[in-house]
Design a protein that fits this description.
Elements (H helix, E strand, L loop, with lengths): L8 H22 L5 H8 L3 H4 L1 H23 L2 H20 L4 H30 L4 H29 L4 H4 L1 H15 L13 H19 L10 H23 L13 H31 L4 H6 L2 H21 L1 H17 L10 H26 L8 H34 L4 H6 L6 H29 L7 H5 L3 H6 L1
Helix pairs in contact: 1-6, 1-7, 1-9, 4-6, 4-10, 4-17, 5-6, 5-9, 6-17, 7-14, 7-16, 10-11, 10-17, 12-16, 12-17, 12-19, 14-15, 14-16, 15-16, 15-19, 17-19
Length: about 500
């Protein structure tokens, strides 16, 4: 390995700080999934209400991410990162003391406002410190929380819920957050500031409520009995209009929240589509899986969480190798292979029953984890491939917004599909079954399994669709491109 490619100790220390902070934020996207069953019973609310504990957090992540690019320029990456950590820790404490579903949802939104900037600011710090020639390896480090966080979240959450109070799924963040703050003070490099940059307030006021309305409208489809409800269409159309106005505004603004000029680069645009689809299937499926084991199989929270482990193991085995392979061979076929494996692992869940073998389901998740490792990291690395040093913060903000929007829509859509499928089979008792308030019969369990199988078809379709943008990524590696002519690079 050349000196230029080697990760020096200072960069590794920065990586440790970024991983500590980022893993807390990403863990909390799914750590609550195995607690939804318990929360429904404790707060006496139905599934359509308690799902906002997850969806509200994802939405707040997406809403605050656009601020990160401006904040990095105006305030500096290091202080922004530390303030975000502090706000996330405060939100975690408040979530742990929540007294109702409404208060918990509100505090989760506050927690997400801190967590939303942890990820893009941390990635920007790492990307600037590493340089484009080492992005594949650096993405392997950053990918630890991005891949393992959503996967290990249900495992940790299940163990906590089964052995202590659900409140500890939030309190566990406090010591980790304090440690990350202490290390950030010493290990993160000093930040450059540029007071010439302005915050695009109008763009923020268009994008933030636009995203909220779109996801809220989708989440109300089940409650309104489909897309026939006028309130659903009013909300969706209102959100889409605001998002469209934001895009129009961003093409004319001097310093937009999302620089649309980035999408003139084909590689960035294609990678963004892949990031969106990966976010949708990653967060959406991790929302469905624990519920299947708890609602249909009757498993305890710890067992439901533990059943997610094979996916984490599969991802961990190939994650670092996928990053370096993408650097050497190019991201196109690496990412396409990963998305195909991801689709294959998900396909096995489309036929789940009330008695499906745990070994078979665990093997399917292991295959899915390998697909995540090969499919996600090359796509993220490719998004930075042709960018200048100055465009890294803008791209980091954009890709994180895209991933969180994909995750928010994935959770909302998959939850609507699941609720609709269960409501069709249990018109009178669907809500009680989801909340665990009544005991289902053997025949009921098979019907519930079929409902989950239909929901997993949506996840499979998302994975299969993700193969398409992967095939349009560059086919050559970074090292090889450096020795090629400009004409060949342009042709690729």
């Amino acid at each position: 390995m050349s000196e230029q490619q080697r990760l020096e100790p200072a960069l590794i220390k920065v990586g440790v700080v970024v991983v500590l902070g980022t893993i807390m934020s990403i863990l909390d996207t799914t750590i609550v999934a195995v607690a939804l069953h318990t929360l429904s019973g404790d707060f006496r609310v139905n599934f359509s209400t308690i799902q906002w504990v997850t969806t509200g957090y994802l939405l707040s992540l997406a809403v605050v991410i656009p601020v990160s690019g401006w904040a990095i320029h105006r305030i500096g990456a290091k202080p922004v990162y530390m303030v975000s950590l502090a706000l996330f820790v405060l939100g975690s404490i408040l979530c742990g003391f929540a007294w109702s579903a409404t208060s918990l949802i509100f505090f989760r939104v506050l927690q997400g406002l801190g967590g939303g900037m942890i990820m893009p600011v941390g990635q920007s710090i790492m990307a600037r410190a590493a340089g484009p020639h080492r992005m594949g390896r650096v993405m392997g480090i950053i990918g630890v929380p991005q891949l393992l966080g959503p996967i290990l979240g249900p495992v940790i959450g299940g163990l906590i819920v089964s052995n202590t109070s659900w409140r500890w799924i939030f309190f566990v963040n406090v010591p980790i957050g304090i440690l990350a703050l202490w290390l950030a003070k010493d290990f993160l490099p000093k930040s450059e500031r540029d007071n010439q940059h302005r915050f695009d307030l109008l763009g923020f006021l268009l994008l933030s409520p636009g995203l909220v309305l779109v996801v809220f409208g989708l989440s109300q489809v089940a409650n309104e009995g489909g897309f026939r409800g006028a309130s659903v269409w009013d909300t969706l159309i209102g959100g889409l209009v605001l998002v469209a106005l934001f895009v129009l505004r961003s093409t004319k603004a001097l310093e937009p929240l999302i620089d649309m000029r980035l999408f003139k680069d084909r590689t960035f645009s294609v990678a963004s589509i892949g990031i969106f689809l990966t976010g949708a299937t990653l967060y959406g499926t991790m929302f469905l899986l624990p519920l299947y084991y708890q609602v249909d199989r009757g498993d305890a929270a710890w067992k439901a969480g533990l059943m997610m482990a094979p996916q984490g193991i599969g991802a961990a085995i190939v994650m670092r190798y996928a990053g370096s392979l993408s650097d050497r061979k190019g991201p196109r076929y690496v990412a396409a292979f990963g998305m195909a494996l991801l689709a294959l692992g998900t396909f096995f869940y489309t036929g789940v029953s009330a008695t499906s073998s745990y070994y078979f389901l665990g093997l399917a998740l292991f295959v899915r984890g390998i697909g995540l490792g090969f499919g996600m990291m090359p796509v993220f690395a490719a998004s930075y491939r042709n960018l200048t040093h100055q465009n890294v913060p803008k791209a980091t903000s954009a890709t994180n917004i895209i991933r969180q929007i994909g995750g928010s829509l994935g959770v909302a859509v998959f939850a609507v599909v699941l609720q609709t499928q269960i409501a069709q089979r249990f018109p009178m008792t669907g809500a009680q079954l989801q909340a665990g308030l009544i005991t289902p019969t053997a025949n009921d369990l098979q019907k519930i399994a079929t409902a989950f199988g239909h929901s997993f078809w949506w996840s499979f379709g998302t994975c299969a669709l993700g193969i398409v943008p992967a095939l349009f990524l560059p086919r050559t590696g970074i090292a090889k491109r450096e020795g090629e002519s400009v004409a060949v690079q342009a042709a690729d």
